[in-house]
Design brief:
The chain is an alpha/beta fold. The protein has 3 domains: 2-135 and 342-356, ATPase, nucleotide binding domain (Nucleotidyltransferase, domain 5), CATH 3.30.420; 146-336, 2-Layer Sandwich (Nucleotidyltransferase, domain 5), CATH 3.30.420; 376-571, DHBP synthase (Alpha-Beta Complex). 36% of the residues lie in helices and 20% in strands. The strands form 5 sheets. A 9-stranded mixed beta sheet has the order 15-23-22-16-17-21-18-20-19, with helices on both faces. Strands 3-2-1-4-5 form a 5-stranded mixed beta sheet. A hairpin with a 2-residue loop joins strand 6 and strand 7.
Length: 572
């Protein structure tokens, strides 16, 4: 049985193919279009998933879409009538709904054939929750999905039990923690869609001195949820204007001038990062954490389950994630590699397979290697067509050679196996550097990344040595989804991956899940005594590279020293 899951006409559009419930392939459309957070129709992703399995669209039994325009329809109509939304906003919503409801037509137009698969529209947050719970391996679990908005809902709690997900609470438009965080991101002057991670990176530089004032903007409820104060937001009366022109999502300003009145400062007038920006970011991060802990502590009382599954855009906040187990009664936490909207393509398919069709549960998903893959012949052909000199070596020599280059201070582009599904490179499409270098941040920002200096770089650590370097009770953190404190006596040893507050967003590398990456880090460990490598995404202000040619392009236009494509090595 084949199920094709689709996230379309929404940020981070994607496709996933399941065979008898097993994820065969999953990939984001931005990897093909080269436009970050692509929000159009994932035609390339769908084609690639089918191509990878060597099937046609007519072989697919079911197609799921992670949006249901009928969900909360009455609430949408009532809210729109009560609030004088602009004509443009209403027109934009109607057009988007029409696109969602004509996906079968879009597919038949692309593939030029009649599609007999059964279509299911799965509500957005049920898709999110399914992406975590049905991948977790937990027989039962409390579940939280929390983001900006999807199908008129921002927050949903539930209990998962075997094949069932039973919803407990929902928080509908216009109240949203994701919207609060996005508004704060915009207030700081970070205006691109998806810039929220910059606030998270800036927060440790400041002190949360604005928390008390922010409680006038957002505060918790006795029912275990929270509310926004409409005084501070545009969207209560005017809606949120989204634009998907050319597939690149943009979002209109959400906050209003009352933020400036409350805080006494217009942060957008200063291009440089001041103490205000740092303290405001710290306050936003801290109050966001408090609200999520409030939701989760109430959820635990309702579920009495020590397992927790988390998804939604807010679940990409790795600083928050690393504090959950120490601030709630939960003992085990699962977050998928794509906790954001891209993951709903998998989630909608899983919801159909388990919740609707009642098929048996499957083992835990601990790999993100679900995307594109290229053979050694395809790699060689690409390199030779670019008339570049290269050497090809066997694995043992490869790991020894590359680890020696890293120790000598070289910046390495590492392109291996299948691309990762989700926003983070996990050792397949990565740029690697020696974590012991004090100048690594400056080196990477000058040579390749061209990004804000306050943003940290992450450590990939051999799973066997986590407890030696981190204050962390978890052994397995495969998706770089949590931040933990680095032990004091190790921070000076790995300054390149130690953030200003002594923390690191770690990825544990398991020799069975990521054997090649594990072998490379092991070789580096044998030479340096450090079981860690600095890992950042293989890109330069663009989506993560997807093809050998894109890897070559990034290598050639930056000051990267070494490019490794499978067993092919290219040096400058």
């Amino acid at each position: 049985m084949y199920i094709l899951g689709i996230n379309a006409f929404h940020g981070d559009s994607s496709a996933a193919l399941l065979k008898d419930g097993v994820i065969i392939c999953a990939i984001e459309e931005e990897r093909f279009t080269r436009i970050k957070h692509w929000a159009g129709f994932p035609a390339n992703s769908i084609k690639y998933c089918l191509q990878y399995e060597n099937i046609s669209i007519t072989d697919v039994d079911y197609i799921t879409v992670s949006r249901n325009t009928k969900a909360n329809l009455l609430a949408k109509i009532i809210y729109t009538l009560k609030n004088r939304f602009t004509f443009h906003t209403i027109k934009d919503r109607i057009l988007n709904f029409n696109k969602i409801n004509t996906i079968q037509f879009s597919l038949e137009k692309i593939f030029k054939t009649k599609i007999n698969a059964q279509f299911y529209n799965i509500e957005h947050h049920r898709s999110h929750m399914s992406s975590s719970f049905y991948s977790s391996g937990f027989e039962s679990s409390a579940i939280l999905s929390i983001d900006g908005f999807g199908d008129f809902t921002s927050t949903m709690t539930a209990i998962g039990n075997d094949k069932n997900i039973d919803v407990i609470k929902t928080l509908k438009y216009p109240h949203s923690l994701g919207v609060f965080y996005t508004a704060a991101t915009q207030f700081l002057g970070f205006n691109n869609y998806g810039d929220e991670y910059k606030v998270m990176g800036l927060a440790p530089y400041g002190n949360p001195r604005f928390k008390k004032k922010l409680l006038d903007i957002i505060d918790v409820n006795s029912d275990g949820l929270f509310r926004l104060n409409k005084k501070y937001f545009v969207h209560f009366n005017n809606g949120v204007e989204m634009n998907w022109d050319n597939g690149s999502p943009t979002i209109s300003k959400i906050f209003n001038s009352e933020w400036i009145n409350l805080l006494g400062f217009d942060s957008r007038k200063n291009l440089e990062i001041l103490d205000f920006h740092k303290d405001f970011a710290s306050s936003v991060q801290s109050i966001t954490e408090d609200i999520v802990f409030h939701i989760l502590n109430n959820l635990y009382k309702e579920s009495k389950d020590e397992n927790l599954c988390l998804s939604g855009g807010v679940a990409q906040n790795s600083v928050l994630n690393g504090k959950i187990l120490s601030n709630t009664p939960f003992k085990n936490l699962y977050i998928p590699s794509a906790g954001h909207d891209a993951g709903t393509s998998i989630g909608s398919a899983h919801f159909l397979y388990h919740s609707i069709l009642k098929k048996e549960r499957l083992p835990r998903v601990d790999t993100a290697s679900l995307g594109s893959e290229y053979s050694i012949n395809e790699i060689k052909s690409c390199v030779e067509s670019n008339e570049l000199e290269y050497i090809e070596v066997v694995d043992k020599k490869l790991f020894d050679y590359v680890s020696s280059k890293i120790i000598k201070g070289k910046v390495v582009g590492w392109f291996q196996g299948r691309s990762e599904f989700g926003p983070r490179s996990l050792g397949n499409r990565s740029i690697l550097v020696d974590p012991r270098r004090h100048d690594a941040k400056q080196l990477l920002n000058k040579k390749i990344k061209m990004r804000e200096t306050f943003r940290p770089f992450a450590p990939s650590i051999l799973q066997e040595y986590v407890s030696d370097y981190f204050y962390c009770n978890e052994i397995q953190i495969p998706f770089m989804e949590k931040v933990y404190k680095i032990k004091e006596d190790k921070r000076e040893l790995i300054p390149a991956v130690t953030h200003v507050d002594g923390s690191g967003r770690l990825q544990t590398v398991n020799k069975h899940i990521s054997p090649r990456y594990h072998s490379l880090i092991s070789s580096f460990f044998n030479k340096s005594g450090v079981p860690i490598i600095l890992n950042t995404s293989f890109n330069e202000n663009e989506p993560i590279v997807n093809t050998p040619q894109e890897a070559l392009n990034c290598f050639l236009r930056t000051d990267m020293d070494l490019l490794v494509l499978g067993n092919i090595i290219i040096e400058k």
